[in-house]
Amino acid sequence: MRARLALLAAAVSVLTLVAFLVPLALLVRAVAEDRATVRATADAQSLVPVVGTADPVTIRLTVEQLAAESGRPVSVFLPDGTVLGTPVPRTPAVALAARGQSLTAESAEGREVVIAVQGRPDGTGVIRTVVPGDELTAGVSRAWLVLALLGVLLVVIGLVVADRLARSLVRPISELSTVSHRLANAELDARVAPAGPAELREVAGALNHLAGRIQELLAQEREEVADLSHRLRTPLTALRLEAESLRDPQDAARITTAVDGLERAVTGLIRQARRQRTSTTAPAGCDAAAVVADRVAFWSVLAEDTGRVVHCDLAAGPLAVTVPADDLAAAVDALLGNVFAHTPDGTPFTVRLARQGEQVVLTVADEGPGMPADTVRRGASLAGSTGLGLDIARRAAEAGGGRLELRTGPGGGAEVLLRLASTADHGGGVPS
After folding, report:
1. How far from 144 is each of 22, 140, 141, 278, 362, CA to CA, in Å?
2. How far apart are CA 179 and CA 386, in angstroms?
3. What is this enzyme's catalytic activity, as reactions (predicted)?
């Protein structure tokens, strides 16, 4: 933008100077030609008294003296045909002046000045002098050069002024762009100092107000999520007490373990809602092999109760990924929960975990009816659920530099791939 404004100013300056300097240059040349013509005419007219009254010898001496002083050829044509001074043939202008008419004409030698001298007893004499082209344009080249330098100087001054004005506009716009990108990268404390024209200052104030409003809304949302999560503690406590009152120790232990896992999830949700994340915070990371193995073991109990066969192919750990353990566990629970929620009892499923190049890939495949590709959209569900399961997995993967892929398996069922970026690619490791 700065360059375009400078180019616009240069174009306007050049056009203005051309419109002003070209007529001025032509005027300078015309003035120089007129000045030389007037000077030559005055010299020729100084001979009029001599040509009108003196004898040929006196006229010759006077003409030769004037030619030597002026440096121009001077000729006098007497009525009897005698030519005094510079010998030249009679020209059409001389013939016309012999009839009593003085004039100025252009010729191959330059500008021809002829003056008719009347009053001689033998007729009309004619004085002729020629202004050469060099004398007509004397000083014009120098004047044109001065005008050209003046034009260049004015263009340079215009460019400097335009650049300063453009910088006063571009700098606030660049700051606005920088702050907007920082806000997009979750740096909500970024603010822009209002500067520049009134319109840009107004935009800067609006952007700062928007950033503050976003901070307020996010803080309010975190508090609401934390409050909602905190309310779940009361029913969880009641559920724990009910589990401890069960007579069967195995059932009590199993339900208590599930309640503990749910309570850990609620606690993590509260902590996450209150935590201020910034773009400079390094990913916590975890061992994907340990997290996936733990969640598969948890769901295997339910799989056994529902008659499902679980095929596990888990690579030996550690498999360091950039996703925190809580987020990865929630993603695995969402994927396995979808299998139980959307396939009939007895449907087998497969869980594979392997390293592929610079990624760790978790694959959950079932032999159920499959699902549409647009199910990954947040809130999309064709089975009456909340539609957040796959979106939770997708966001967990993308937060760590990975992605979620949904496709149809070889047997026609759904196959979900959770591609996770390895911590080794980010210069980190598995937390101890």
Report:
1. 10, 6, 5, 65, 80
2. 36
3. ATP + protein L-histidine = ADP + protein N-phospho-L-histidine
CA distance 15 to 370: 71
Per-residue pLDDT of the chain (432 residues; tens, 9 = 90+): 677 777 888 888 888 888 888 899 999 999 999 999 999 999 999 999 998 888 889 989 999 999 888 888 999 999 888 899 989 898 999 889 888 889 999 888 889 999 999 888 888 899 999 999 888 888 899 999 998 998 889 888 888 888 888 887 788 888 888 888 888 887 878 888 888 778 888 888 898 888 888 888 887 777 777 666 656 666 776 777 777 777 777 777 778 777 777 777 776 666 665 554 434 344 567 888 898 898 888 888 888 888 888 888 888 878 888 888 888 888 888 888 888 878 888 888 999 998 888 888 999 988 877 765 555 444 444 444 434 567 778 888 887 788 888 888 777 788 888 988 887 644 444 443
User: CA 351, CA 293: separation in Å to the nearest integer?
Assistant: 10
- 3-state secondary structure at position 369: coil
CA distance 285 to 45: 107
**SS3 readout for 2-54:** HHHHHHHHHHHHHHHHHHHHHHHHHHHHHHHHHHHHHHHHHHHHCCHHHHHHC
